[in-house]
Known about the structure:
Number of helices: 17
Structural class: alpha/beta
Function: Catalyzes the ATP-dependent amidation of deamido-NAD to form NAD. Uses L-glutamine as a nitrogen source.
Protein name: Glutamine-dependent NAD(+) synthetase
InterPro entries: C-N_Hydrolase, C-N_Hydrolase_sf, Gln-dep_NAD_synthase, NAD/GMP_synthase, NAD_synthase, Rossmann-like_a/b/a_fold
Number of strands: 19
CATH architecture of the largest domain: 4-Layer Sandwich
Helix content: 25-40%
Distance between the termini: 64 Å
CATH class of the largest domain: Alpha Beta
Family: In the C-terminal section; belongs to the NAD synthetase family.
Amino acid sequence: MAVLRLALAQYDFPVGAVAANTAKVRELMARAREGGASLAVFPELTISGYPPEDLLLRPSFLAACQEAIQAIATDTNGLAAIVGFPHSVGEVYNAAAFLRGGEIVQITHKQALPNYGVFDDKRYFRPGRTSAVAVVDGVRVGYLICEDVWQAEPAAAAAAAGAELIVVINASPWDDAKQAEREEVLVARAKETGCALVYLNLIGGQDEVVYDGGSLLVNGDGSIAARAPSFVDALLWADFDTTTRTLQALDWPSVPDTSHEATLYAALVRGIRDYIDKNGFGGVLLGLSGGIDSALTLALAVDALGPDRVTAVMMPMRYTSELSLEGARGQAERMGVEYHVISIEPVYEAFMGQLTPVFAGKKPDVTEENLQSRTRGVMLMALSNKHSRLLLATGNKSEMAVGYATLYGDMCGAYAPLKDVYKTEVYRLSRWRNLAEQRKQGAEAWVIPPAVIERPPSAELRDNQTDQDSLPPYDELDAILARFIEEEQSQAEIIAAGYDAATVHRVVRLVLVNEFKRRQAGPGPRATTRAFGRERRYPITSGWK
């Protein structure tokens, strides 16, 4: 029986950090060698980070990546390695280098270039033509790059070339449906080819996407041998048995809760932490309104960065309820963050004093409500500038979808953690976070004030206001939005599913007419299969209704 030991680097390799990524590869290769691995495997575009976007148009960047892969090759004595990098040979390829004996032995190019969703590979790369196979300790190892395994042909070609094991290096962003889809595809490839598969995925936050890791081992008969935890950095050890074509995970880390809520929460935390740290910000600031969205955002920020790097500001107005004031103060104190209360009343009145002569003859309307929100935005931005703390926007996907948000008001913020999280999901996450705290601290523990979770949601911009004055109930609204946005259903299809026709027409109209707002929103981590931004791109000006 021949056994091949692999070391799989489920780590973050940040975009553009060529020198740091190179150093990390070398350090991990040393650990792999010390641990007795024969093959170390690294994610897609390890050297450049993924996606490098228009950095790939810069010759100096491509040259630095080429120098890095050559330097890494010199460290491979006693170890083979597969490392992703951008390969520039007149044209640019998304490549994987097979390194051994101090040399670049072989280079293969990604064959299937995705150009859907968040992917834009065809803008930058030319497709490869062949599947590569290398021999490591007598084992024939095929290796593919990400999208290649989602098509049948590249894996079939590797198997036809004699591969016993197929290694797939990936930069596959997380969403709430992705892991099930990955497993279905990998099981199909294993059954088609008879090859065992190693699926190694990148981890970390990069602007509007988060990579979860979630690496997989699949036996030659299609059974799942092991699942790596999501959002856990680790060097994963595995043994491949050539006789049975089976894989064995060796002491892989685990997480206590693998529920949807736990994984989504971990994705949002990772998104915040990596966005703040990779961009060099000392901390964050947010408006804590006493509502559930800002309460969840505060919890996420503290879990991501620690309380010392988070500042919360309550900015009351005459319409702010005592429940909001108590909820915000209680949460800020419980979480140990810097907390300020700054009334917007005098600033708002000053604005109105200047504007009233020009408003003469017009009744109060949403203008005055929006002015309250914009007053808060001005003050938060001033605090952000003065204290060098990045402002987090607290709006959710339901609000962003229908435009229930104020430009240059509550939409102020350089990063929006809940941008792709529906309101109903905000409630589920908040309840889950409290339950997680109770498991650790006891039945009375909470992070998000229970009264804030149970109250009817309100923007508190006028007396006795609730969100449902302007919107359908969130259960109904989110169901319609998910059908229209994620599932791309027509209005007729949604109505046929049993939803009120007038409500459907109104919701769809709000989605379409508020594209201009979303174009001006801060980035936020992708959580669903159709996030606003680079994944869902609708024209602002359009006659299609």
